[in-house]
UniProtKB/TrEMBL annotation, chains A, B, C, D:
This is Cyclase family protein. SUPFAM superfamilies: Putative cyclase. GO terms for molecular function: hydrolase activity. Keywords: Hydrolase.
Amino acid sequence: MRPDQLDRSDPEGAIAATAARVSNWGRWGDDDVLGTMNFLTDTKRRDAAGLVRTGRSYSLSQSFDMDGPQKGWRRRTNPVHTMLDTGVDAAAGVQGFPHGIGGADDVIAMPLQCSTQWDGLGHIFDHGRAWNGRPAEQVVTSLGDRVTGIETVADLVAGRGVLLDVGRALGEDGELPDGFAITEEHLEATIAAQGPTTAVGRGDIVLVRTGQLTRARREGWGDYAGGPAPGMSFTTAEWLQATEIAAIATDTWGFEVRPNEFDHAFQPLHQIAIPHIGLFIGEMWDLDALADACAADGHYDFFLTASPLRITGAVGAPVNPVAVR
Amino acid sequence: MRPDQLDRSDPEGAIAATAARVSNWGRWGDDDVLGTMNFLTDTKRRDAAGLVRTGRSYSLSQSFDMDGPQKGWRRRTNPVHTMLDTGVDAAAGVQGFPHGIGGADDVIAMPLQCSTQWDGLGHIFDHGRAWNGRPAEQVVTSLGDRVTGIETVADLVAGRGVLLDVGRALGEDGELPDGFAITEEHLEATIAAQGPTTAVGRGDIVLVRTGQLTRARREGWGDYAGGPAPGMSFTTAEWLQATEIAAIATDTWGFEVRPNEFDHAFQPLHQIAIPHIGLFIGEMWDLDALADACAADGHYDFFLTASPLRITGAVGAPVNPVAVR
Amino acid sequence: MRPDQLDRSDPEGAIAATAARVSNWGRWGDDDVLGTMNFLTDTKRRDAAGLVRTGRSYSLSQSFDMDGPQKGWRRRTNPVHTMLDTGVDAAAGVQGFPHGIGGADDVIAMPLQCSTQWDGLGHIFDHGRAWNGRPAEQVVTSLGDRVTGIETVADLVAGRGVLLDVGRALGEDGELPDGFAITEEHLEATIAAQGPTTAVGRGDIVLVRTGQLTRARREGWGDYAGGPAPGMSFTTAEWLQATEIAAIATDTWGFEVRPNEFDHAFQPLHQIAIPHIGLFIGEMWDLDALADACAADGHYDFFLTASPLRITGAVGAPVNPVAVR
Amino acid sequence: MRPDQLDRSDPEGAIAATAARVSNWGRWGDDDVLGTMNFLTDTKRRDAAGLVRTGRSYSLSQSFDMDGPQKGWRRRTNPVHTMLDTGVDAAAGVQGFPHGIGGADDVIAMPLQCSTQWDGLGHIFDHGRAWNGRPAEQVVTSLGDRVTGIETVADLVAGRGVLLDVGRALGEDGELPDGFAITEEHLEATIAAQGPTTAVGRGDIVLVRTGQLTRARREGWGDYAGGPAPGMSFTTAEWLQATEIAAIATDTWGFEVRPNEFDHAFQPLHQIAIPHIGLFIGEMWDLDALADACAADGHYDFFLTASPLRITGAVGAPVNPVAVR
């Protein structure tokens, strides 16, 4: 489907029709809690280790601090990091420890999706249904996600990463404009342009660089957290499912194009990808240094470890993804 | 030095003498912020990728939740995870989103050292001096660690991991008793017992399993967070420095043996290892599943990614370490 | 009803029967959000100001700090107070402010019911019904209490306070034992013993001292937060409603006697008092200094201001109640 | 001193000279922790109770929620209030409590000065000196204010409140423009205009309404938290000390006029008022409803209870001030 075939007035209809086509419900049994992470097998992970050529590593995490983009939407703030003890206290001799030892210690209060993170399978529902068709109210209560909490994949998220630098392949100066909807055609064009290391298939973790973060870094955050952005078109749902990728991440706040491709809608591709495909979505990743390295030598795949912080019952979780090339 | 050669009445003297012998100050220049992480080069990391044989991955993280061991010492609580939105709300139709989409979202408040974590180089001081000889008050203020914040190593902590399962090699039923001081002799005996895959050298990330976590899991936390524990002897300081390892982690709260090996002391080995050696110390790691796998096939080294959450200025940071064998 | 008339095996029946007798639903109209606070009129408040004789004031608040009684039940921790800036930093000159000014600033993370607090009308439900018969799911969502948030009474909670020092009147050494169920008979005996200033009536804020806090202060917290305690008998429901008091508070964690007076139950009097009577309940108040003063001069009523912190949508709120005699 | 007599280029000199004139150091002994709260005696409080005429009460607190004015300056965010349990969960039957009881519970994470609050005596230092001349580093460490924590006045802050509605007396439409420096002359003119109930003297709690909050409520927060504002002139330092008031509060973020009255300065009046005078300063109070009532009947004094939340060691604290007229 092409974006111009969408009926902009009927997101609900488009979602229902698309969900019917791409649903993975039941594919891995009624008890499944892993969704597309099932595709990332030990064999895939072993093969991915073979992609390491120089050993150079790249963190794909943005910073967690008060200089982040959050403005308070739905109580999402930037992380507040405070000290329990400091070097200044230690130097002033006010800590009361023996034999000259001094210490510093710290705490943090933050939304789990304030910076670089994974959406877990309990993050989004479609008409009250969570991943695999479960009733949302039986999955995520005030106590957290009792079924598909992010801890279910804490061991697993390491494998082959593939960068699709759509910004560099199709944008001007390496950046797609806000509102640019990345279609399957754009993805395939990027894959073709980048060459053979970019083939995308079962179990891969796909990283899509739009260049919006590059722009935000240069021009200021503006409305990075929730405003207009380049991102995946709703019409990529089939591609996301058919490729059998394990996960996908972008350098934007919300993964999909914004404004969304309907007159009145909110993140309709999430509504397909998470509850129906069982797909793990990463957001706010920093792909710039990695992208420069890939562009320099033409190798776009690498060993990627991106296991989320093991917060029991989390519906999303911060992560420091590390690519080793 | 053997533990029985320590003057139990003089920790300050022992610390000073040991610091003089093992100091790495200036080794990597005055501006260094990486300490022993300098040993973990791209080449080392590339070679480590070659250790992956089956592709099976193991998270070495304990859970982050209210069932953890913290009891409030120095305001260290267990993490408090709360929901901003839930599946119950989504199912009840009270969220106000369009086209049937519903969502769950969450926040956390936690000490950075409440569960599986790295100590950063700004965590401990010796007589007001931080790593590389810097005045502590110029390093860690109420704004955080301005020099050696954990973000400095956010890209780097991936390489060869080596498990020293001292509990299994020397303990009864795989566990060392509380108060057991692991000496260089014990480490070497474990290396010998485990065989050739266990050689420890420059750039390695060494994981020492005592079995205390296994016991806590069976018997309840008790005083896991700060009470008696097996751990590294103060006398291993030379070994820690001479081996040129990049980092070390244990399955205990505090890395070193407790009670400490002096009459009145508090974590004296930290006072050497962090500010003088520049060594990264991991605590509260869960090594049990990995240890079972290593024991089963006799391979004790693996590819380990353990990059800390990228919290700007943090003196410690939570991490989900993942070993791939 | 006397406690020995309760059928210990049937809390649900007892609750239903009692609710039918004491319900205030509809008493102040369908839109009411104030419950018994309606009884505390301006006239009552004006008259209460006349009770001030010496001008001596007493805070009835326990401390908010890590030395409190919370042990993590349902994620209720003690408050974690951390500094954003300190005097040590200011003295060390690391703050970067001009003309010699320095500052300290702080943050807190805490459950709203961790220490001295009011239960709001959205705190407890009976079979899915909140105060005035509203469906609970329409009142308190993940966004907070949208109807009866504590802000609705932020202006109002000032009036005549009356201390019923049941511990001193009926206990040994001023303390009731844990498990002691305070009945209407005990309340009336205390009123009689204390004399004419103790009359209880419409619009009053009644403070019931059991002495448990005195004991905890002497012997350590133990299970103060949720364990056995003296407190109000389930059978006082009629008294609580018939007296037309505006609010009631105790020096215990949970207001009512614990263990509760049924074989298997959890806070059954709450289930009557809050959703059916619309009564505001204060917990963890420190009544000791006030009680000493009352005992010394025989005056048991005073002007009490106890307006909760104005947290929008809170179902409970911390408060520093101040009695002026 | 008049504002036009200030040397705008020399805040440090002006501060030193003013401090020398108004210092209260030693006035109440070397151990004093109460500062000007010493003026608020029991007798003053008793007399203040006599001001109650109708019994109508007014909360002077702004809301504590995410709709507040904070933008993250020095990590000051708006309060983040989240639910531990909700009515939606209770109605869905997922809470697991017996006999039909359901509950809601909540937590908060917030800076102590995010909304209506008192500055404590440990909030501001002058050249490393805190109130009464104490070295700042001995007063406020990372553990909080060990000497003058806000708990020292938890019992005390109840007495005569006097509203000086400068906005109404001197402004247009009841509001002073941003940058308007309120001088002693303006205060006296307001007192004269308001009439005999407005006399200001020893032990009073003075509330100065500028009207900025009224404007922010109408036009949006803009830079309410730290931007230009009407407020007290630096030159009022003598008046603040000579009147022997117990405390003062305004409807603005920062009490004093902003921009400050020097070329390069930051809150110079704070540097006098808190460490030298020992004065308690309230900020972000909502005085509008009270002001309307005072204007309506010409009575500008009332009984005011404004005891801060009892957070041990806090250098500032949230409060719900309640005026009863």
